[in-house]
Amino acid sequence: MSMKTWWLAFVGALAVLVLIALSIARMYGPARPAPVEEAPVAGTPSTPKETAHITATLFFGAPDGQTLAAVRRDVALADTVVEQGRQILNAQLSEVPQAPLVGVIPAGTKLRAFYVTDRGDAFVDLSSDVVTGHPGGSLNELLTVYAIVDAVTANLPAVRRVQILVDGKEADTIAGHVDLRRPLSRDDSLVREGDEK
Amino acid sequence: MVAALILALVGTMSGQDSAPSTPLTLVSRDARRTVPTSMQNGREVVALDDLANLLQLSVKEDSLAGGVTVSYRGRTIVASADRPIVSVEGRVVSLPAPMVRSGRRWLVPIEFISSALAPIYDQRIELRRASRLVILGDVRLPRVTANIDSPGPPTRATLEITPAAAVTVNADPGRMVVRIDADGLDFAPSATGGLIDRIRIGDQPNTLLVETTGTGRATVTTANNVARVLIEVAAATTSESRAPGAPGAAPTPAPAPAPGAPIPDPRAAIAATRTWQTIAIDPGHGGDDVGVRSAKGVEEKQLTLDIARRLRGIVESRLGLRVILTRDDDRALGLDERASVANNGKANLLISLHVNGSRVPETAGAEVLHLQLDRESAEVVRAATAEGAALPTISGITRRLDLIPWDLAQARHLDESSVLASVLQEELQRQIPMSTHPIRQGPVRLLAAANMPAALVEVAYLTNPQQEGRLGTDDFKNSVAQALFSAIVRFRAWSEESQAQ
Fold first, then answer.
1. How many residue pairs from chains A and B have C-beta atoms closer than 8 A?
2. Which residue in B291, B360, B443 is closest to A102 by CB distance?
3. Which of A30, A62, A196, B45 is the most buried (most CB within 10 A)?
4. For B129-161, b where at least 16 C-beta lie within 10 A, e where not — what string?
5. Cβ contact (<8 Å) for A138 and B374?
6. pTM for the whole thing?
7. Chunked mean pLDDT (size 10), chain A, 197 residues
């Protein structure tokens, strides 16, 4: 084998290694900031592999009415952190839990967009149904907000905090109590222990 | 003959426990009623029967146990005949003497009214022994004392009004009318002297008439929740009667302090800055924002306003504090506007009132929320506090300012708010059912911008059918207002003591 052939083989192998490394980094590394998506994404599922899925933790109202219950559900595996977040949130928003669990997010609430910044802050853009359909009360509102915050942070280690937007804009609150103007960290104090199934 | 009759009468009276010179008077908004008392073994006592008639109490005798149970709306006091203690809702309260039987009646020391009855009653009951008054309900009846500071002339005197209330004084030759913003006055005629002939209650129950020989002027000051009226009466002179612009008439008293009048102690002025003046109550929701709505259509916004008004009445009348309601009608108000009302009013405390909702109908009980800042926000505040800013003042002294983002104003009050939440929880627990999570900490939007100790109180669950029913009753709303009032009193004492240290 000539020196030129060796050189070409070496460069080719290096290129393959770089491509593999980039693919791995894209799947598991911090997500790149995605632009704000104006168009609704609910109902436009990503392209999950038919058989691949992850076991995600979703959060519903516990029977005591005071806390969240963590529940395990199969969610389609996605290629990126952002796509995976959308899959998890769509599952969280669309599932109507069976008694004695109760839903804590108003029915009809849709995910408009989801993106993550380099700092690990995720933005969850919800349709205004989350406000117009909310029954009120600080407890209800805390459970609504932290079901979303905890669903994202519990399943996506790259995300540290979550800010909820409504109709693409920053919102003060959903029902007059919980401050949505800044990203919120996970709060396990609202999750009842031993409920995870 | 007359002397003999008097001697005979005195002789008759000295043979028994003498009666008090004046009976007690029960004062409420609508009436003044006499509470008969007598003396037993050197102690002034009152019959339980009389209290029961006046205050709608139920008195049941347990002959086997040798005691009596006094009940009022489900709350009880248990007293026994041989021990100077009573059980008030399970708590032992001591009395100066045991209950005694007199014929078919049970007599208790008059301190029973303040020590045992007041805690179970749904209205304020206050025994003012010195002035022979029992105050029932939200009656503003400040104590007024009068002292002659120097007989002069000019004669100087001071009226002290506790708790402080707004005072206006009209002075004419020969008389001054002191009008106090109250329902009545707790005033006993006191010493007079110099050019002040007499001080007495005026034509209206909230006025004092100062009869003088001369012309008076007055200055009103307020410190430490005491209003002081400094009066100076000068002898009438012929030059006064020829005052320009008012021939033959006495001059109008100047509002400025009288020359030589006592100068307020500067230490009192400093103390006054530490003393509470104002509290803010925020009735949650309003206008289009109805808050939680029950299955029967009861709306949170109405209940919060109702309770807020009751609380305002109690605090103003009993503590003499200014109470700001962020809204006093049914209108929508932003959360920043609510915080601004409290901040601009320099309130010493903010309580936001709410009624809770749950998707599980069985969820019940009151909860108290206070602010929790996340790590990033806390770091922002820490950095701002550490850097601060130095501003020069007119006097040439540099004044250091902490620049904290306005929407994180609560950051410097987090510890106090935590204490406030605990006090609120303890006092609510005495009056109404609490949730299984009585205190929560979270990112409460309104509280973040409050520049004073602040907490949000959810008084009950409107989604719980039983609690929905109770929320509509005066009994429940008064209990909430009473609990909040007690918490304010306790927290104020803690706060003022902390600042004094």
1. 103
2. B360
3. B45
4. eebbbbbbbbbbbbbbebebbeebebbbbbbeb
5. no
6. 0.56
7. 62 60 47 35 45 91 95 93 96 95 96 95 97 96 97 95 96 96 91 64
